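Training component of the fellowship. As part of building independent skills, the fellow (R.M.) carried out the full modelling exercise for a liganded target. The chosen ligand was PRP. The inputs are recorded below so that the supervisory panel can assess the work.
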Amino acid sequence: MRIHVADHPLIAHKLTALRDETTDSPTFRRLADELVTLLAYEATRDVRVDEVTVTTPVAEAKGTKLASPKPLVVPILRAGLGMLDGMMRLLPTAEVGFLGMVRNEDTLEASTYAERLPDDLSGRQCYVLDPMLATGGTLAAAIRFLVDRGADHITAICLLSAPEGCDRLEKELDGLDIPVTVVTAAMDEKLNEKGYIVPGLGDAGDRLYGVVG
Ligand SMILES: O=P(O)(O)OC[C@H]1O[C@H](OP(=O)(O)OP(=O)(O)O)[C@H](O)[C@@H]1O
Ligand SMILES: O=c1cc[nH]c(=O)[nH]1
Ligand SMILES: [Mg+2]
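Fellow's submitted model of the complex:
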């Protein structure tokens, strides 16, 4: 597994505002959207392309276009939904599949409550969107899900990551023979006793969409 921490002053600037507890939901949604587009630029570095020829007003030129089958973008509900528009801005022809997952706040175990994905992902590149990589349970389960369906190349885009979650992913994905990359805006310090990323930004889903009971 490869972890890429995107080091760019604009990313750091937007992430700082996102972390701020006084940032309201509309601003939080806008910042998350903008951050994903910046991260997606890095995350799509190895998106598959075909060579094509294009005729300019002057001459023929060699170029590239996205290969088929098109990549599949998979936001993990709820909070990953706040990253979808920003991703699709960069990959407008990608297809979108959905995974609904929630972490039990007592046991910190992730469970899946919704799934709308193609049955066969053979030969597909998948981009998983989830703002928080905390214990890693949610992302590990999501990646297993996609691999079981045949995905052969997975890139996760996470706004924030914790070292504990990355270690868990490394262990759980050990032996997987497909490339897995995590692109993140920052590697934070640690998790607290409730499994929240420190310093983090709090509960991403709640900050995007409000607290559910
Ligand atoms: O790495 P983990 O320890 O598994 O935690 C990360 C997950 O927790 C949050 O989801 P949450 O369960 O709060 O659901 P929500 O997006 O609906 O708020 C977050 O959006 C991740 O999906
Ligand atoms: O810090 C965290 C950890 C898990 N989920 C969140 O939304 N935030
Ligand atoms: Mg949440």
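The panel noted the following from the submitted structure. The chain has a mean pLDDT of 97. The longest helix spans residues 25-43.
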